[in-house]
Q: What sequence folds into this?
């Protein structure tokens, strides 16, 4: 299956232009009114810097030092006047609205805003579950390629890890710790009510510029409405939609550069020579040459060196252009946007291009019927062969980059063949692309008369996601016979949801019911054709039939989920709140001998204490709500067909003929059922001192049982493991979110946002026998992912007696603690749990300063209490055959280094070199300038903002290596070959954390 992706790119651009022109021409012309006014607080003091926005548009202005503003508005539009920690006021513009005197009351804006919850919205003061909104500034003012990058460290209880900085890579996300061991633990993502998770797509397909709001559901009450998908948290994304008013045209663009945030430099030529001499001396060998390999000697003699890191790296460049138009009449509202992102990586060959188009439309057909749609197209491009960073760090500075004919030397340190030229990947051909075509529609009917308050909504969504992955490696890339492959896949997903809503007020009693019946289906198909043995490299992967040997594979699977849900919200006088939810899910992934359905109930209570008479007029406490919830959620996060025993194919010679046979593949378990998590949450929301301080505190405890766990089996059975429902894990934690208005002067304002999250994770049970699993390093009572290893206490020095602690150890060897005191170091008696790989606590602080029309935001992120194995400290017996990092020392008889081993040390025990990976990072700094209204009028613009932003500016850490957050793979680890996967978790895709500087502008046209 082939796709003309370049044609799709051209088509998408033309489609965007046609849509934009057409919508602009059909927009209703409306009378323009020049509105001016003054914004003050309740004491009569002017409020400089208050925002005056035309609702549903990006058109806005800010008040000057006297609180004055003026803005051109279409008749019938709504002005929203807002200021930090004050109640937003809305005013409908009429012919009589010319001069306004606006007074804003102090209140807790956070508790009164409307937030998105599952299958609807609520005032935050009515929310009983743990729901956190992502700060909108992080959605609109940060140049990120994936919206999860904006969440890192900014939302309490949501742990975002950027383990790979490969362009286009998606960060890993976790909510409130790890609830499962082998099954998936990522949050469930829903966009505009339709699931993105399990559709084959990713958040790379969602343009951050199109996002209007983003909420994270965390506790059982909030996520139980999503049943089987809720145990790992839920991320709800709502995209921008149009509003009544004239067309609003907005253009956002930024461009910038990237470099490596921290360089783990190899040894310079002099240090490399010294290292080799020390290696030969420590291993007792006679040194006959100053360099290890004969091809290095001419360059050494001539003083010719090469900086391999410089050869494989480059200045990264990124740019993004986003154009959107929104507006509409009272009955028809639209939002259309197009985005083009281009990123060139800091390693040669790495790049990412994305073209996306979105169109959202809402139509009031009658006074009781509303229909609408949301559609988008995204084309992701990761083409190209890539340089290899790990090989670059290993090369001798006296190696040879090129052959005499100008081609890359395959073995720069010939005859050394352990490491090849790091630039060989650039000679390969690779096409790696994916497309996401998504269309969602809805119809909403509101009933009247005796059925007033009843509403029915039908949601339908369809996703088509084709991918293409073609590659060729030829003679220049050290593949003498040539190897080609062509792969394609397609995923088709549809979702249908029937929703019934009913709202009723009886005196002080409010009832709110939501009912759901939904179905989700997904079909996946992939095929791969491959060939080897080409006469030459001319045809690349374009004629697989030219290869001497061809192979082909294909695979298909289907998935289905049926769901029913009911939720009741009740409140009395806005003080006492109750939420009860129950969801029933049936999944096709589970076994024939058990029910495929699971029921997930939850209940939550809330008390708005500030509404009580004894607090209603309090000057100290402006808002106070107590929340409590308890419920059950499920997890089905395993692949389809795990309950079925299957065989794989194998070719074997039989009577001189290659014959296809079968062999054991997967051992099914027809009794497999849901993994279940029960959780309790207690929280408090508050606002103090005239809402100068507001925030929330949550404490939670969850227990997961019936884990979807891979039970190890004796290999004599023909299978290595089988999925089973065994084991239990638990999580408990504390989350704090604090917003403060530190200074609120006429010209200068300073606000802070602080988040803190603590999580304690442990395994409660594994196989029912109370025993640990040493093979998988799972220990009852300990976190799921721990460092279990020997405890290093130093390095054996000359003259020390190792016979009573580690017989056989010699000077320069690592020294380990004899934990059991038996006079020898053994795996059974001397390995101990030294730490956990997940942080014990995370935090972040954002300080935002405003001075007149300048705004400065500084965000600092931290992750503490975690350990990781440091692969950069372990080169086993390769230290004599490769260059090593200058930052990493080694022991000699004269320096008596007590932190690093000798060059002769061989890591026969498989020590992982665990080290503290805690860090504090200046994550991003953004300086912006909002152009004043007087200048905008002269330029005939509605808004203009310039900004400069930097990300990953500096990291404070004890870690020695590229970065404590990045995963570095050792040579040969999970080698995917030919860089065939854009984000392969192996040594071909080691990629450093990058530092980014961008300059941008947001322009709103009249």
A:
């Amino acid at each position: 299956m082939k796709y003309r992706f370049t044609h799709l790119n051209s088509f998408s651009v033309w489609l965007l232009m046609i849509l934009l022109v057409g919508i602009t021409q059909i927009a209703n012309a409306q009378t323009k009114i020049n509105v001016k006014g003054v914004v003050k607080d309740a004491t009569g003091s002017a409020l400089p810097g208050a925002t005056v926005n035309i609702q549903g548009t990006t058109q806005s202005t800010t008040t000057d030092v006297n609180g004055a503003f003026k803005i051109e508005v279409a008749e019938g539009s709504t002005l929203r006047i807002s200021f930090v920690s004050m109640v937003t006021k809305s005013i409908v513009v009429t012919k009589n609205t010319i001069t306004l005197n606006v007074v804003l009351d102090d209140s807790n804006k956070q508790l009164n805003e409307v937030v998105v919850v599952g299958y609807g919205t609520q005032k935050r003061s009515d929310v009983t579950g743990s729901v956190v909104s992502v700060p909108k500034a992080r959605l609109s003012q940060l140049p990120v390629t994936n919206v999860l990058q904006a969440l890192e460290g900014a939302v309490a209880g949501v742990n975002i890890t950027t383990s790979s900085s490969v362009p286009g890579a998606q960060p890993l996300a976790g909510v409130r710790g790890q609830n499962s061991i082998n099954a998936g633990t990522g949050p469930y993502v829903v966009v505009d009510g339709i699931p993105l998770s399990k559709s084959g797509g990713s958040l790379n397909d969602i343009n951050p510029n199109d996002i209007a709001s983003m909420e994270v559901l965390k506790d059982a009450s909030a996520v139980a409405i999503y049943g089987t998908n809720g145990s790992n948290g839920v991320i709800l994304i709502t995209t921008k939609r149009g509003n009544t008013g004239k067309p609003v045209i907005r253009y956002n663009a930024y461009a910038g550069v990237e470099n490596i945030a921290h360089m783990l430099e190899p040894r310079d030529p002099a240090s490399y020579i010294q290292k080799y001499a020390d290696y030969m001396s420590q291993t007792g060998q006679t040194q006959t040459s100053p360099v290890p390999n004969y091809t290095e000697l001419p360059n050494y003699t001539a003083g010719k060196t090469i900086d391999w890191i410089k050869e494989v790296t480059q200045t990264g460049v990124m740019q993004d252009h986003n154009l959107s138009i929104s507006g509409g009449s009272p009955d028809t509202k639209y939002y259309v946007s197009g985005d083009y992102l281009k990123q060139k990586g800091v390693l040669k060959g790495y790049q990412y291009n994305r073209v996306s188009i979105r169109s959202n439309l809402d139509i009031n057909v009658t006074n009781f019927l509303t229909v609408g749609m949301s559609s988008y197209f995204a084309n992701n491009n990761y083409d190209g062969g890539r340089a290899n960073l790990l090989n670059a760090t290993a090369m001798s500075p006296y190696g040879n980059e090129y052959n005499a004919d100008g081609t890359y030397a395959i073995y720069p340190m010939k005859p050394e063949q352990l490491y090849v030229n790091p630039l060989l990947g650039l000679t390969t051909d690779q096409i790696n692309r994916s497309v996401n075509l998504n269309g969602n529609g809805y119809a909403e009917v509101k009933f009247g008369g005796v059925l007033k308050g009843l509403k029915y909504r039908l949601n339908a969504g369809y996703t088509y996601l084709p991918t293409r992955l073609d590659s060729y490696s030829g003679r220049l890339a050290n593949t003498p016979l040539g190897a080609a492959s062509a792969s394609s896949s397609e995923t088709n997903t549809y979702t249908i949801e029937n929703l019934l809503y009913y709202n009723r007020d009886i005196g002080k009693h409010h009832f709110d019911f939501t009912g759901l019946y939904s179905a989700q289906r997904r079909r996946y198909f992939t095929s791969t054709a491959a060939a080897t043995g080409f006469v030459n490299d001319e045809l690349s992967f374009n004629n697989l039939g030219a290869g001497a040997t061809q192979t082909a594979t294909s695979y298909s699977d289907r998935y289905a989920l049926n769901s029913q849900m009911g939720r009741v919200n009740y409140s009395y006088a806005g003080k006492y709140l109750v939420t009860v939810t129950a969801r029933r899910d049936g999944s096709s992934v589970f076994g024939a001998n058990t029910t495929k359905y699971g029921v997930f109930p939850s209940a939550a209570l809330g008390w708005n204490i500030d509404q009580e008479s004894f607090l209603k007029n309090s000057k100290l406490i402006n808002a106070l709500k107590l929340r409590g919830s308890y419920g059950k959620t499920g997890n089905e996060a395993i692949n389809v067909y795990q309950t079925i025993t299957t065989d794989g194919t194998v070719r074997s010679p039989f009577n001189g003929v290659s014959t296809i046979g079968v062999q054991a593949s997967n051992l099914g378990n027809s009794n497999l059922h849901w993994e279940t998590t029960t959780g309790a949450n207690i929280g408090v929301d508050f606002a103090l001192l005239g809402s100068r301080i507001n925030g929330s505190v949550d404490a939670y405890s969850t227990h997961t049982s019936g884990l979807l766990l891979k039970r190890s089996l004796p290999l004599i059975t023909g299978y290595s493991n089988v999925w089973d429902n065994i084991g239990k894990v638990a999580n408990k934690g504390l989350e704090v979110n604090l917003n403060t208005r530190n200074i609120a002067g006429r010209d200068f304002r300073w606000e802070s946002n602080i988040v803190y999250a603590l999580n304690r994770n442990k395994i409660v049970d594994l196989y029912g026998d109370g025993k640990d699993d040493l093979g998988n390093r799972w220990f009852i009572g300990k976190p799921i992912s721990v460092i279990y290893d020997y405890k290093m206490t130093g390095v054996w020095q000359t003259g020390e007696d190792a016979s009573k602690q580690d017989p056989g150890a010699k000077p320069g060897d690592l020294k380990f603690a004899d934990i059991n005191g038996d006079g020898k170091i053994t795996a059974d008696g001397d390995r101990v749990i030294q730490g956990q790989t997940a942080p014990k606590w995370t935090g972040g602080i954002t300080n935002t300063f405003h001075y007149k029309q300048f705004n400065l935001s500084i965000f600092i992120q931290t992750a503490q209490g975690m350990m990781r194995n440091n692969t950069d400290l372990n080169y086993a017996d390769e230290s004599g055959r490769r260059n090593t990092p200058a930052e990493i020392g080694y022991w000699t008889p004269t320096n008596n280094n007590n932190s690093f081993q000798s060059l002769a040390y061989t890591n026969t025990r498989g020590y992982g070199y665990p080290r503290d990976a805690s860090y504090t990072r200046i994550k991003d700094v953004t300086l912006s300038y909002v152009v004043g209204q007087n200048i905008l009028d002269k330029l005939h613009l509605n808004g203009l903002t310039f900004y400069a932003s930097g990300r990953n500016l500096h990291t404070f850490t004890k870690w020695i290596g590229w970065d404590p957050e990045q995963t570095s793979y050792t040579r040969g680890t999970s080698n995917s070959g030919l860089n065939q996967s854009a984000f392969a978790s192996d040594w071909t895709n080691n990629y450093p954390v990058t530092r980014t500087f961008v300059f941008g502008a947001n322009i709103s046209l009249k």
Q: What stands out?
A: The first strand starts at residue 32 and ends at 41. Confidence is low (pLDDT under 50) at residues 1-29. Residues 5-26 form the longest helix (22 residues).
